Amino acid sequence: MKTIIEPFKIKSVEPIRFTTKEERKKILESAGYNTFLIHADDVLIDLLTDSGTSAMSSDQWAGIMRGDESYAGAKSFYRFESAVKNITGDTFIIPTHQGRAAEKILFSIIGGPGKYFASNTFFDTTRANIEFTGAEAVDLLCAVGKRPEERAPFKGNMDVDALENLIGKVGKENIPLVMLTVTNNSGGGQPVSMQNIRDVKEVCKKFQLPLYFDACRFAENAYFIKLREKGYENKSVLEICKEMFSYADGSTMSAKKDALVNIGGWLSLNDEELAMKCRNLLIVTEGFPTYGGLAGRDLEAIAQGLEEVVDEHYLQYRIRSTEYLGEKLINAGVPIIEPPGGHAIYIDAKRFLPHVPVNEYPGQSIVCELYVEGGLRTCEIGSVMFGKYDKDGKLIPAMMELVRLAIPRRVYTQSHIDYVAEVVIEVFNRREKLKGVEIIYEAPMLRHFTAKFKPH
Ligand SMILES: *Cc1c(COP(=O)(O)O)cnc(C)c1O
Predict the structure, then answer these.
(1) Are residues 193 and 294 located together in one domain of the fold?
(2) Does residue 11 belong to any structural domain of this protein?
(3) Does residue 159 surpass a pLDDT of 80?
(4) Do 67 and 26 sit in the same domain of this protein?
(5) pLDDT confidence of 48, banded at 50, 70, 90?
(6) CA of 217 to the centre of ligand 1 (A)
(7) Distance from the CA of 44 to the center of ligand 1, in angstroms?
(8) 46 and 109 share one domain
């Protein structure tokens, strides 16, 4: 088989700035050893997130020019609506400025104290929007999804028995909806199988509960189904997407992921009464229902992005380039979550730095070293992000200590990825010399964004 190439050529380039190791040491120190606080211009390869960092196509940029900026009933809205309908099949399509705005609207209407929401794994903004209403967000990930070193094709699946148990325990009247996050971002970008979607739908049907998707990476999920699930190898990705969504009653979406744009989102649903309530809240918080916090040009770019994201040459390149980085790291012995997910590689920091205890934040130590070594910006997803304290001020660590290397869509070439692997392997080869870090400042909530550290 021949090399899988980037299915595009480059028309416009954005230079990246080289710095020396000495400069990076100083930059990191003045940022309090927190890569969120580094200027992007001081980063060589930015793997902080795949959200809103996609490169748009020439057709999307053309759409930006075509954008109809009419306040109401813009042509661009109808193009957006029909593109979203084509994939979701849903009746009511509500644009929002990003994913969390859709979540905020949906959950503030159906949430509240005493309510429970179940998911394979709620993403952090989704969980926050549920908990903000006083409701509870319950993660019911299948067992294999919690074991980072074990390979399985669909580690994003929901534990269906656990869902039935939850319904039995809290009562179906207290569960406004069940949600599947496709792919499971917080669980390593792992996909959910069509069989699992069907099984979850069966339970939902039995208890008359709506099933929603957190659909941010629906196309990557569909491509994994095509690659890994029997019976789907000859279906088109668009057909698979349509089948996935045929089991759902609605979706929330961050267009910053699989719509290949820099801003945008939606809430889609079939329940007319709920849709009316959502639209009314949208008018107060986001804007009129035919633009919902976006410009007409953004709606055009999303509509075009949704056509491009289901292109199988694109998805083959996308999934393969993540896997390619994963393979290089695995071959060098670097411990990562296996198999590689769709949008990111997750280094298992506990196995990478077994000599650094969790209260010295091994993930953060790796993040800092990757920056100094090669100008890479990555993100700790471990006890800096999710750690809490008990009554005596002792750290309650996160379930896993991970470092995420998120791959922006269509932005970096194979040689960039080769370079990333070289930097990670270089740091891995001298891992014994790495030390932990200590937190010297932290905010009471979402501390990872602003915390300051001191290296040991
Ligand atoms: C990014 C993301 C969101 C939130 O979307 P924003 O556009 O960042 O508000 C929700 N769920 C998942 C799975 C995500 O990856």
Answers:
(1) yes
(2) no
(3) yes
(4) no
(5) very high
(6) 9
(7) 25
(8) no
CA 270 – CA 150 distance, rounded (Å)? 38
- State whether residue 273 is helix, strand or coil: helix
- Given pLDDT bands bounded at 50, 70 and 90, which one contains residue 444? confident
Please indicate whether residue 218, judged by its CB atom, sits closer than 6 Å to ligand 1: no
Pocket perturbation via mutation, ligand 1, pick of 49, 51, 266 by most ligand atoms within 8 A of CB: 51
The best mutation among 220, 253, 254 to test binding of ligand 1, ranked by most ligand atoms within 8 Å of the C-beta, falls on: 254
Sorting pLDDT into bands at 50, 70 and 90, what band is 447?
A: confident
Expressed as residue numbers, the domain containing 366 is 21-50+311-455
Domain presence at residue 12: no
The dihedral through the CA atoms of 204, 217, 162, 100 has a sign that is: negative
Ligand 1, atom 12, residue with closest C-alpha: 123
Residue nearest to atom 5 of ligand 1 (CA): 99
Q: Is the pLDDT of residue 175 over 90?
A: yes
β-bridge mates for residue 251, sequence order? 213, 268
Evaluate: CB of 254 within 6 angstroms of ligand 1: yes
The answer, yes or no, to whether any atom of ligand 1 lies below 6 A from the CB of 265, is yes
Q: Is residue 269 part of a domain?
A: yes
127 alpha carbon – ligand 1 mean position (Å): 11
Please say if the pLDDT value at position 212 is more than 80.
Answer: yes
Q: Is the CB of 181 under 6 A from ligand 1?
A: yes
Long-range contacts of 355-359 (CB under 8 A, 24+ apart): 355/432, 356/434, 356/435, 356/436, 357/436, 358/382, 358/383, 358/395, 358/397, 358/401, 359/383, 359/395, 359/397, 359/436
By most ligand atoms within 8 Å of CB, the mutation choice from 123, 183, 212, 218 for ligand 1 is 123
pTM of the model: 0.95
Are both 328 and 410 inside the same structural domain?
A: yes
| Token duo for residue 383 | 């006890």
Residue 445 in this model has a pLDDT that exceeds 80: no
Task: Tell me: do 290 and 400 sit in the same domain.
Answer: no
Q: Which of 308, 324, 354 finishes a domain?
A: 308
Say if residue 213 is in the same domain as residue 283. yes
As for how many domains the chain has, the answer is 2
Mean local confidence (pLDDT), 279-288: 96
> Is 393 part of any domain?
yes
On whether the CB atoms of residues 155 and 168 are closer than 8 A, the answer is no
Among 174, 162, 154, 167, smallest CA distance to 205 is for 167
> Is there a single domain that holds both residue 246 and residue 332?
no
